[in-house]
Amino acid sequence: MDREITLEVDGAGRASTVDTRTSLLDALRERLGVTSAKKGCDHGQCGACTVLLDGRRVNSCLVLAVTADGAQVTTSDGLAGEGPHRLHETFVDHDAYQCGYCTPGQIASAAGVLAEVAQGWPSAVTEDLVAERTELTDAEIRERMSGNLCRCAAYANIVPAIAEVAVEQGVRA
Amino acid sequence: MREFRYEKATDPAGAVALLAGEPEGAYLGGGTNLVDLMRLGVATPDVLVDVRTLTSTEVEDLPDGGLRIGAAVPNADLAAERRVRERYPLLAQALLAGASGQLRNRATTGGNLLQRTRCTYFTDTTMPCNKRAPGSGCGAVTGLHRNLAVLGATDEGPESAHTCIATHPSDLAVALRALDAQVRVLGAGGERSVPMAELHRLPGDDPSRDTTLAHGELITAIDVPALPWATRSRYRKVRDRASYAFALVSVAAAMDLDGGCVRDVRIALGGMAHAPWRATVAEDALRGGPATEEAFAAAAEAELAAARPLADNAFKVPMATNMITRTLLQISTEARS
């Protein structure tokens, strides 16, 4: 059953007609031609489809597009301003990918992680749950990024790529 | 995926009224489990009533010092809520031990309690499963059951319509069970409060039903009563990988100590049964007794005496025994330091 929706995708207003069964991921890729977010598992298990939905990282494969009507969607592409986002640069500098398929999801997720840490959100590996400030250690990065799988196993380079931006943003010494 | 109509209401009562006339309809919360089940053909609603932001998104103080958690509070926000982290560390830890950052951002408090088992026979429509297709039998008892139930299950053999060894997947529910939370539910007949002890059911002779809620009843909030000694509490989870996996065994525990004695204790287990499992046998054995490793181990063993493991999940019995012991030991050690 078709529904009209409007989205703000990477800063641009977009309208589309979607079947109620359409995921946000499919609406982006198949209806709007925005292919930054990727389809990996389509079950919310791999994180390749991660986007920021109204500023929060989510699996766009598990969001029905019709429920996102009026929302602001930011993909990895949309993080770029005049030039690339610092995460784009550090992923290149640290060789934090091999095939690159999971990378836009990794980067959107990492942007979400940085925002969550800046708000003082704890994680499963945070020792002091009531601390005002959480340091984005390597262990914290690994835990917080566990919803993004990389079949090339570039994890060893993804961690320092995110760590470098964390230092710049003041959430890591 | 079956075609469905998408509906929104302006308030919770409106959503209840919408679904009351739709026997095959369902509420949609964050959708992190339901959308996947629909894609798999396991859930086939013909109407979705979107309640993701319809109930409260606030955490409010209750007069007794407890908290009222709106059913629409996302799991991530609840875990980050300072009052939860300070008053109920086991609750924050349980939430943070579940799913991934992306899923916790989307999943709601109410929806978390109503997620379905991840038993692979339930999610595979080509397999027999009494929960998904009542009367079709259970593939798990003679199949892959390493991660399935050892307590409170029904096993009358693979052909029986009653057999079910599914586990409840929620971490949050285990912590709320230990905390004696009350679930506020709105139905066509009005509002009622359901103790966590009565929300989830064991499979009994009807494995298709996970909870005692009637069709169309909507969780609006969770009341967590005050428990001053829950500041010394823990949620401990063992899983097949370091993060982002369901529990093989989890323990939610809080303990009130009087010198070297256990004044009161709460223990609930996850990954062990069709419902969050309150370890009342262990609690009774411990209350008023010494807070020693030997007493913790003896109480845990007494609790697990009721276990009926299968060939490939018997490891859960010593694992749960050890985890109860270690978790209580950790709480008592921290209390003394």
Describe this structure in words.
The complex is a heterodimer of chains A (173) and B (337). Chain A has 6 helices and 5 strands; from the N terminus they run ββαβββααααα. Chain A is α+β, with helices and mostly antiparallel strands. Chain A folds into 2 domains: 78 residues, Ubiquitin-like (UB roll); 83 residues, [2Fe-2S]-binding domain (DNA polymerase, domain 1). A 5-stranded mixed β-sheet of chain A has the order 2-1-5-3-4, with helices on both faces. In chain A, a hairpin with a 2-residue loop joins strand 1 and strand 2. The radius of gyration of chain A is 16 Å and the shape is globular. With 337 residues, chain B is an alpha+beta fold. Chain B folds into 2 domains: 48 residues, Uridine Diphospho-n-acetylenolpyruvylglucosamine Reductase, domain 2 (2-Layer Sandwich); 285 residues, Uridine Diphospho-n-acetylenolpyruvylglucosamine Reductase, domain 3, CATH 3.30.465.10. Helix content of chain B is 30%, strand content 19%. Chain B has 13 helices and 12 strands. The longest helix of chain B is centred in the C-terminal third of the chain and has 21 residues. At the A-B interface, strand 4, helix 4 and helix 5 of A face helix 2, helix 3, helix 4, helix 5 and helix 6 of B.
Furnish the topology, listing elements before pairings.
The complex is a heterodimer of chains A (173) and B (337).
Chain A: E1 2-9, E2 12-19, H1 24-31, E3 50-53, E4 56-59, E5 72-74, H2 76-79, H3 86-93, H4 103-118, H5 138-144, H6 155-168
Parallel strand pairs in A: 1-5
Antiparallel strand pairs in A: 1-2, 3-4, 3-5
Helix pairs in contact in A: 3-6
Chain B: E1 5-8, H1 12-20, E2 26-28, H2 34-40, E3 47-50, E4 59-61, E5 67-70, H3 75-80, H4 82-87, H5 89-96, H6 101-106, H7 109-113, H8 120-123, H9 172-178, E6 182-187, E7 190-195, H10 196-199, E8 218-224, E9 233-238, E10 249-258, E11 261-270, E12 277-278, H11 280-286, H12 293-304, H13 316-336
Parallel strand pairs in B: 1-3, 2-3
Antiparallel strand pairs in B: 4-5, 5-8, 6-7, 6-8, 9-10, 10-11, 11-12
Helix pairs in contact in B: 5-9, 11-12, 12-13
